[in-house]
Amino acid sequence: MSVMILAASESLADTVRQTADTFGWTPQMFFSQVVSFVIMALLLRRFAYKPILAVLEERRRAIEEGQLNAEKIKKELAEAEKRYQEIVAKANADAQKMIDEARESAAHLSERKQQEAIAAAEQIIAKAREAAAIEHDRTMESLKRELGRLVVQTTAKVTEKVLTPEDQRRLQEEAARQLAG
Amino acid sequence: MLDKMRNRCFLFPFLTLFGGVALATSAMASESEPALPLKPAPLVQIGGFAITNSMLVTWFVAAAIIIFAQVATRNIRAIPTGIQNFWEWLVESLYNFLEGIIGRELVSKTFWFFATIFIFILFVNWFGLIPGVGTIGWGHTDPASGVFHIDRPLLRGGNADLNMTTAMAAVFFVLWFVWAIQAQGVGGFLKHLFAPKGETSGILKILMLFIFFAVGWLEVISILFRPIALSFRLFGNIYAGESMLETLSSMMPALAWLIPIPFYFLEVLVGFVQALVFMLLTAVFTLLIAQHGPGPEGEHT
Predict the structure, then answer these.
(1) Interface-testing mutation among B77, B163, B234, with chain A (most A C-beta atoms within 10 A)
(2) Number of Cβ within a 10 Å radius of residue A41
């Protein structure tokens, strides 16, 4: 068994050696390439990727911050909008209230002024009536006196006699009564 | 079902590996001189270590990427323009793509590696398509045909070198293990491999303990084969593409400039797809071991 394993391992080693020889693989060249590749990978890591990855990370952070700020601004804008709507609604309500009050006040004032105007008109009318009555009375009085005098004069002419003061007074009273009736 | 899937996962790399080796060996046997050598050519020898033509390409590409990234990020502006814009687009797109697959927490830790894998493999693959790579170098003139053959090209596609692809796969394997231990702890890691999944009781529970313990070993073998599968897949695709382009270029010398052109577009696509596949597989392997809680994917590594 062990002989078979030994033979197999020797055969495998021969195959590996032959393969390496066919393809020009040697431990020296292999290690040279390993060292070369490792140095190159480390150099690329340090000088090629690090600066760009730092820039990309910075940009990603800036974008995230920008997004957060945008969210914050959006929220603040929504709050401001809400506040604005509330203020506008309150202002509308206040304005409506003021308009209603003004309307009510105007209605009251109008009513009062109307009443005052009516009262003033009535007063003017009453005064006019009073003045007219006084004038009427004065005119009537004057008319009575004039009529009495004309009656006395006419009567004196018609009768061609001198009337006594008693007759004159009686005729004037009669004429005034006739006129009043 | 699970066992079948595991066995399939286990067998596939084996078949790929040995099939590839067999094909390559037969190709070598039938063709005395392949279009593109399988081995990278050493340019400079420093002690035991060699600087190869493929290594030179990887350095060129790495230096170009670093210089480009440095120029792009020299004067970083909040609103990007020009190459900063392009580099940002590339890195951010990759980051978002990987984040969608492996999650925010894991991507912040592992992005540098997966981004390197993708960008590096992609540009190394495309660099290999530049005329002159693999065709300028040292060679000889074939006395029979009079055609000049390149024996030792100055530059070679970086991923057409198995040393490079295995190096990347090996580095990933180490990192995968580190990330797995960081995420699960040693106990959690072993439990993830060997502990039975699902709710059972009585004799069935004991039976499941044995089954999952055995399946765990298959899982270990499957994990050990991942770097091999990753490296051979990438190497095979890129080497095959370059070989095809070189063969097509040398088929009819008069039309050598025309025939490979459609295949260049194909290779541009293959280069992208292979970079994506390597990155996606490594990312998914990492996700499967590092994710917390018994998810449905976590049981099918």
Answers:
(1) B163
(2) 21
* Euclidean distance between CA atoms B138 and B66, whole angstroms: 30
Measure the CA–CA gap between B278 and A46, rounded to whole angstroms.
22
Q: Please, which residues have CB within 8 angstroms of residue A111's CB and are 6 or more apart in sequence?
A: none
Strands B148-153 and B137-141: antiparallel
SS (H, E, C) B27-79: HHHHCCCCCCCCCCCEEEEECCEEEEHHHHHHHHHHHHHHHHHHHHCCCCCCC
Q: In whole angstroms, give the CA distance from residue B184 to residue B293.
A: 10
Q: What is the pLDDT of residues A32-44, one digit of tens each?
A: 889 889 998 999 8
Location of structure tokens 């595991």: B6
Q: Which residues of chain B have pLDDT under 50?
A: 1-32, 295-301
Q: What are phi and psi of B50, to 5 degrees?
A: -120, 145
- Taking residues A12-23, report their average pLDDT: 89
Choose between A92 and A153: higher pLDDT.
A92
- A16 near B CB under 8 A: no
Q: What is the mean pLDDT of chain A?
A: 88
Q: Is the confidence at residue A109, as pLDDT, over 50?
A: yes
- Contact of B164 with B57, CB cutoff 8 Å: no
d(CA B196, CA B206): 10
b/e map of B266-280 (b: 16 or more CB within 10 Å)?
A: ebeebbeebbeebbb
A27 in contact with B at a CB cutoff of 8 Å? no
Helices (runs of H) and strands (runs of E) counted in chain B: 7, 4
Distance CA B31, CA B33 (A): 5
Nearest by CB to A22, which of B24, B120, B164?
B24
Compare CB distances from A28 to B50, B70, B87 and report the shortest one's residue. Answer: B50
Instruction: Please tell me the distance from the alpha carbon of residue B30 to that of residue B81, in angstroms, as a whole number.
Output: 55
Q: How many C-beta atoms lie closer than 10 Å to residue B189's C-beta?
A: 17
pLDDT recorded at residue B141: 86
Does pLDDT of A7 surpass 80?
A: no
Distance in angstroms (rounded) separating the CA atoms of residues B59 and B56: 5
The model's pLDDT over B77-88, given as tens digits with 9 standing for 90+, comes to 878 888 889 999
The length of chain B, given as a count of residues: 301
Asked if residue A179 has pLDDT above 80, the reply is no
What value of ipTM does the predicted structure carry? 0.80
Q: Which chain B residues touch A60 with a CB distance below 8 Å?
A: none
Q: What is the mean pLDDT of residues A168-180?
A: 82
Q: Is A102 left (phi over 0), alpha (psi -120 to 50) or beta?
A: alpha
Name the pTM for this structure: 0.69
With residue B148 as reference, give the H or E element that holds it: strand B148-153
